[in-house]
Amino acid sequence: MINLTVNTIAISVDEGTTVAAAIDAAGVIGFRTSVTGEPRAPLCGMGICFECRVTIDGIGHQRSCNALAAEGMEVVTGE
Amino acid sequence: MSKLTTDILIVGGGPAGMSAAVGASQKDGTKITVVDDNPHLGGQIWRADLGKIKSAEAQELIALLEQQKISILNNAAVFARTGNALHVETPSGKIEIEYKKLILATGARERFLPFPGWTLPNVFGAAGLQALVKGGLNIQDKRVVVAGTGPLLLVVAEYLASKGARIAAICEQASNKKLDRFALGLWRWPSKIAQGISLKAKLRSIPYYRNSWITAANGESLLHSVTVKRLNKTEVIECEMLACGFHLVPNTELAQLFGCSILDGFVAVDDFQETSIPNIFSAGEPTGIGGVEAAVVEGKIAGLAAIEEWDRARALFKVRHRTSTFAKALDRTFELREELKSLASSSTFVCRCEDVQYGKLTEFGDFRMAKLQTRCGMGACQGRICGAAVEFLFGWKDRSVRPPIFPVKMENL
Amino acid sequence: MNYDVAIIGAGIVGAACAASLSASGLRVLVLDSKNVATGTTAAGMGHIVLMDDSEAQLALTGYSRRLWNKFADELPADAEYDHCGTIWVAADEEELSEVRRKKSVYAEHGADAEILDDRALRELEPNLRDGLVGGLLVKDDSVVYQLCATKFLIELATRYGAKLRTGSRVLGIYDDGVTLDNGDIIAAGVIINAAGAAAAELSPQLKIVKRKGHLAITERYPNFVRHQLIELGYLKSAHGSDADSVAFNVQPRNTGQVLLGSSRQFGVHDSEIDFNILHRMTSRAFEYMPNLKTLATARVWTGFRPATPDNLPYIGKVPGRENIYAACGHEGLGITTSLGTAELLRSMILGQTPAIPVEPYSPSRTITEH
Lengths: 79, 413, 370
Prior knowledge:
The complex is a heterotrimer.
Chain A: E1 2-6, E2 9-13, H1 19-25, E3 32-33, E4 39-40, E5 53-56, E6 59-63, E7 74-76
Parallel strand pairs in A: 1-7
Antiparallel strand pairs in A: 1-2, 3-4, 5-6, 5-7
Chain B: E1 2-11, H1 15-24, E2 32-35, H2 56-67, E3 71-73, E4 77-82, E5 85-90, E6 93-104, E7 108-110, E8 123-124, H3 126-134, E9 143-149, H4 152-162, E10 166-172, H5 176-184, H6 190-202, E11 208-209, E12 213-219, E13 223-230, E14 233-238, E15 241-246, E16 248-250, H7 253-257, E17 262-263, E18 266-267, E19 280-282, H8 291-306, H9 310-314, H10 317-333, E20 349-351, E21 356-357, H11 358-361, H12 367-374, H13 386-394, E22 408-409
Parallel strand pairs in B: 1-2, 1-6, 2-3, 6-19, 8-15, 9-10, 9-15, 10-11
Antiparallel strand pairs in B: 4-5, 5-6, 7-16, 12-13, 13-14, 17-18, 20-21
Chain C: E1 3-8, H1 12-23, E2 28-32, H2 40-43, E3 47-48, H3 55-71, E4 86-90, H4 93-108, E5 113-117, H5 118-124, E6 134-138, E7 142-143, H6 146-159, E8 163-166, E9 170-174, E10 177-180, E11 185-193, H7 199-202, E12 209-220, E13 228-231, E14 245-252, E15 257-266, H8 275-288, E16 296-307, E17 314-317, E18 324-328, H9 334-350
Parallel strand pairs in C: 1-2, 1-11, 2-8, 4-13, 11-18
Antiparallel strand pairs in C: 3-7, 4-6, 5-6, 9-10, 10-11, 12-15, 12-16, 13-14, 14-15, 17-18
């Protein structure tokens, strides 16, 4: 299992799980906030639409659908 | 920044790219490199369940790839080119890869059309939700509506059901007439019949609506139901997730960056899968949406042609011809109906990156003006989502392509 | 239909002229071979900035900036007018003396500017690196989304009865009108050449060369940068000369995006992105703002500044022609000086006294090239 945090919530996921799936498993709904303030979540699932962007280990605008969860990773949503 | 050189550079590790690598590996001493922006090979269609590819064909290809010691770069996004080199961003920095021959197997993405509520969380693409579940998203006992168009809907529904989802309905916008004609013609591709029969059997208990499409996704900040148009009436179906995609559009950005001829939206190639630019080949969905079988044979031809094994490539032309007629049948059957043009209300966002509403876009006569004045298509996805939508809605086709074709860290530019 | 004025070019300069002249009751036609704000205007940074490379430049940018700040209330929200101010950043003591000089020149001109020490600079712009010695904060500078501002100027003009005709190229200018590529002849009492980088093709008397520039824009990082930042180091670099050069210039957009410039190249006519100079440009920026390195860059583009030999625009009668005026050659300051240019031209055409002396911008001036 891989241990990471999503908005400081600790969560364990199987190896090979995407960050997007880990965020969902942590019960977080909005991945990013749109230009007009709407909560947004993954759409395309394959790195095209950029709706699933989150901050991973301090670096913003990372696509969570094609990043794999890693041990100790800190994920923050809502950017 | 680091530099690499290779004889043959393949962009895309899906069926076409992997098959191209196998084809090109038939000549000893040829250095082959595959770059792919996913964590694993397999592309979208063979996207692994939690990293483990199951398809037998894919396994075979992977074994071959391993024996041939082909270099594979995962999580590598191609964003620009200079001369005979591609600029690639990886988690560990930028790599410039110089090549002698290039094979573009960049695959396809789903087509999305805007309708009220489509920006709500838990509204996904059809292939999109499947990809997310393959990445570990849990859908056990989730009530899901699968909608849109294309043969993918059945595949996705079956897959989601196998992962514990409860499929409330499948809504296919194509008409009975077109679907029947398609089914009658399937004898030409026996493998498709077998696939179809086994899918139908697995989906027997699920309502399958033809002539049917989503007119709205309902919810405040989260989806709770969808409004479905069916048999001249609308009905509301409760669901926790909507998986909605309107068939596929090719990823041609990289080919466009090279100035390869594009015909009717697809990369134009000759018999040997070579584009209008010498030594640049393309295979799979960028050259026509034809599915896995087409991608595999086209990839193989491109790989063989790249090592100048002309006769062996030529031997595959017949197989390719069969798959290409299937692609044409797909296009005819799942052509989008006119009614889908009026789904968006004036306040529906068309560009999700910049939140540009449908009503705002109707003020403009072409995509460039709309872009400059509203930033439609100028956000992070660079028009990959709204571009196909405005082409269908307004007939705007003038998508310019400039590097970086994906956002990259400034230090990697 | 006869027009009092035909304006060639619907960039921001042509649009400003159209708004001003039509408001004065003249019948105006604006012509553009493509569309509103699709040339150099579309490619620029949208800054409204006081500049003092020369006295005449200071006079024109100062006058124009006052007009912008008055006009700001009328602008629609999508013009994203942001009164963010400029900070001229000093990296060493030599540049700090330039800060003091600049402040006193601006003060003489009645413009507000405040000297910042290293701490004040860091406080205002935390993403600048340590070790910079200070800067000059010019509070009344602004940033505007120039594409929507240009469209609004055209809308203003049409409210006053001006007409817009897009998609036809002007082939020739005559004292009483222009000819179009489809053979149409349009009669007008006065013709204004506001064709930007293409102006010299129509009026060969004007000397205008294209200076290619690159810009890069990031995704949204609200508050990453708060003012327009410009290095003073360009004094020592080659930014003023004829060699290719880069300088650190960064701008906050209202969207939270960070817009990064700038590069200058002469004699390059293709619009391709040149990764060598782009790399020099970003490297220069990292020297000032290392945290830029990890920002996701969404787009890069190029544009052509219409430059005159003395870096001042042409505003006034084209030499040897009676009814033909130039409003072009604004180089990288077209957004800033558009409103001033329009007012000066309006005064000349209506026979009124211009608000500032116009001789330095006369297309007939003798230009000693440096």
